[in-house]
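thought: fold this chain, then report.
action: predict
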Amino acid sequence: MKKFFMMMAMAAIALFTVTACGDDDDDKGGNESSEAVPVLTKAPYAEQAVALNINSFKTPKSSKYAALKRLNFLESGTYMLELDAESTSARVTRAGGSSLYEFGKFTYSGGTYKLDNGLEITLTKSGSSYDIVIKLKDGTTIECTGSIIPTSGVTAGIMTDNLCSRPWTIETVRVRIIDKDGAVFSRDFSAPFDLDAVKKWAESNGKGINDKIETNTVVTGINFGSDGFFAITYTNRSSDVGSWRWRNIADGILGYNWDDTSMGLSVLTGEATVAFTKSPERCKLTLKGKIDNNEMEFVFTLK
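observation:
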């Protein structure tokens, strides 16, 4: 499943041709002055976006949220909560088997983030850290402290603003396969995008894909943060999370890593290229790779 989706949805999620660039090309070229890059809708919570590691709790651990390890409030109005949990088959994620992830939307008012799961989280800066109060639906509170997660050096600019402006949803996907004999197979898939349907189509054309994918593994969204975090969410299983950074921002090429949860600059495991269209506002993502001796290309149209 990991190598299958590494070509498919990604991580960088939202964009168009993959070109190999070394890390020496990282963040080459700004994009603020490029008239070729349209400016999409401004992210609604750019000023409130923050990513924190949870350091210590001041209250007894009487709720699952007292197992909070990390929280992200993304510019798009999406939140991510990482909770410590034992690994089970239903909790496998690319970031490791010891975490559970919750995603949803939030609003912000007067220093408080109101989550669509009923939580209210208030952050108060205290020196180099934050005091955090989590108010549960029953009115009880959990108090803890957190520190800002070091970013992965994502370059600011129009490209970054566009990528982080919303939770992206898949509109269409074009899958193209070239087998070892050079035969080409191509098909367009409309949303909702089901990875199992792609696997079955490939196999019906004799293109074996060994990865195990559960039925109705539908991608529900792709989220990017300017702190270098990204996540892909599904209907029937835990999310895939990782870190990303620009390898060549001028050409829209980004690299991503499924396994790093520290937002550091460890070895990136894939590349994609991003392009944006102003009207209607769209983002195109193309991934290329090789799966079980088949060259595969996935072109996502995101909205």
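thought: worth noting. Residues 2-43+153-302 form one domain.
final: tokens above.
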